[in-house]
Amino acid sequence: MNSDEMFRGSKVVILDFGSQYTQVIARRVRESRVYSEILPFSVGPDQIRETGARGIILSGGPASVFFKDAPQMDPEIFGMGIPVLGICYGIQLMAYHLGGSVEFSDRREYGAGTLNVTGTSPLFDGLPSKLQVWNSHGDKITQIPEEFEAIGTTENSAYAAIQHRGRSLFGLQFHPEVAHTPLGKDILENFIYRACGCSPDWTMGSFIEQTCREIRRKVRDDKVVLGLSGGVDSSVAAALIHRAIGEQLTCIFVNNGLLRSREPETVQKIFRGHFHIRLKYVDATFSFLHLIRGITDPEKKRKLIGGEFIRVFQEATKELKAEDSGERHYRFLAQGTLYPDVIESVSISGNPAALIKSHHNVGGLPESMDFELLEPLRQLFKDEVRQVGLELELPREIVFRQPFPGPGLAVRILGDITEERLETLRQADEIVVNEMKATDWYYKVWQSFAVLLPIQSVGVMGDQRTYENCIALRIVESQDGMTADWVRIPYEILARISTRIINEVKGINRVCYDISSKPPSTIEWE
Ligand code: XMP
């Protein structure tokens, strides 16, 4: 969907100056049920006006306003008559541009502090006069602009919170968006509700209703095709588009032979059986397995699988078009693209989700495919997508599913990939999933899975000496997949998983637990 099809309720825009917390600010605002959008710091007043925003938040950032290449903003934004809240680097920009003095500091003030509220301000309405806050800033304001007043101080700063005497311009030296500022959410709510006059109209129900209308308006009586993987994003996109246009949507589900136990059946049962969505099931097991037979190099495997997926998917869409009786066309390709994938982040470390996508080259259908894109989840964060999924009555097992890599079990079998080794891993993996779900740990961790190693070791079963395979267990916690740590899972659960795998999966006589963090290891073993 394009920007002319945006949410029409209350809206706040956040100008991104590269803070690691920019997305957190956007989420906090949305948690208060006001729609928020992140824009690059370089946007001008006209672009902001076009969005219909009722408030502007300037994010923090790692730069000093004195750096030659420091991200700058158009100071006219302060004169638009739209309330502005500058956070951290944002307050310094405000002071710098409006006639105050900022002092360069190469030492960051970092950590917890206490804010003494010293002035009357809508930002602190209903809040105590002392607040615990979290600081992380370099430069310091030594003098505020003439028309401003201090409304809060900390031990290290006489200008920890400031406001314009006549206009709705506010600055905070600390970070209200982080959990270490316990009442920060109230401060942000005071800004968006009281200063900006926003109403809490961003709910998943209103999103679904409005998006369905937009989809119908855009698609008219054409047809839409969607690549369904069974993961959260494509599943929610499918259910949402189906709600909007019913039979005009067809999903293509490709079985690449590298899926988990019962996955093809489950996906068909849910989407075709329960939702009555038109589903084209393509069993391409043979072509995928034939292609990667004997390939052990991880990157080669990935490339071959990615290329084959595109070929099979294109083939399937051609078939659909040929089956099309001609009165309607498959004009649209739907994708479950999420908001973190589309933000043009200026953060130094980059946008984690985008990095993972480009690193693993996922979601990459070629542009030459003759479709217009339909991306109804483009405005949503992952947790919002889950809420939409629940509202659309998708089952919990889909909505809270752990991430599963595009190349599937191929990157969890080290060495040669054969039908037999796939079956072994499927059985072990199913035990891991079931045991994790039985104790609810499945939903508390980022990922939990089995890896089949290319080694054999000696064991003993009854009076018999065995020489069999080894399974590695990988259970990690993570925020975004970029960094991860192994989970200190209770021993009893590990013991149960190990015993069951060794007893029930033929050919396995040893189970190991992977206790490496990322970095330097990765989550997957290939
Ligand atoms: P790594 O192994 O790089 O994984 O630490 C980070 C996250 O990305 C997932 N992953 C993939 N996802 N195609 C995908 O769609 C892939 O080729 C791929 N490889 C890894 C992985 O499961 C983890 O969540």
Based on the model shown, name its key terms.
526 residues, alpha/beta, Rossmann fold, GMP Synthetase, Chain A, domain 3, 9-stranded mixed sheet, 5-stranded parallel sheet, 20 strands, globular, binds xanthosine-5'-monophosphate
Low-confidence stretches: 347-358
| Largest sheet composition | 9 strands, mixed
What would you say the CATH architecture of the largest domain is? 3-Layer(aba) Sandwich
Please give the domain count: 3
Broad CATH class of the largest domain: Alpha Beta
Basic shape: globular
- Kindly report the spatial arrangement of strands forming the biggest sheet: 2-1-3-4-11-10-9-6-7
Beta-strand segment tally? 20
How far from one another are the termini? Answer: 35 Å
Q: Say what the CATH topology of the largest domain is.
A: Rossmann fold
User: So, the CATH homologous superfamily of the largest domain?
Assistant: HUPs
- Distinct ligands, ions and cofactors found in the model: xanthosine-5'-monophosphate
Rounded mean pLDDT score? 92
The proportion of residues in beta strands is: 15-25%
Q: Please bin the fraction of helical residues.
A: 25-40%
- Derived from helix and strand composition plus strand pairing, the structural class reads alpha/beta
Number of helical stretches of at least 4 residues: 15
Integer-rounded radius of gyration:
27 Å
